[in-house]
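I'll show an entry:

:::
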Amino acid sequence: MGLFDFLKSDKKKHEAAEKAAAAASADYAAKYTDAVSATKAAAERMAAAAPPKPAPHTPTPTSAAHKAVPAAPAPKPVPAAKKRTYTVRAGDSLSAIARRELGNEARWRELYAMNRGVIGSNPDLVHPGQVLTLPH
């Protein structure tokens, strides 16, 4: 026995394993193809055995489809809520206005956010005569 004889036996084992894998792959493909065709055949049989779809209902003059149904009444317009406004007086600040008009001086940021276009970029600078919109 030679030094590399073990390689020959491993090569034979490897070739046998490859043949077995190829055979299994062929069996799988055949089974898969059979399953697909069986599924298609079953679907065709079920479609043929299904009862025909009924024709859509044609309303007659006495059916409910032709009876007069009153239209829903139009919704009454909701009266628009009046905007609450406040005219700035001398010595006012946003926190003082928020405390007096909104009940919480911490809401000055909300007041500023609603009136940024009137007040400008500095919330500490409000001028007498400016008309501010108050939040609800």
Remarks:
- The chain has a mean pLDDT of 81.
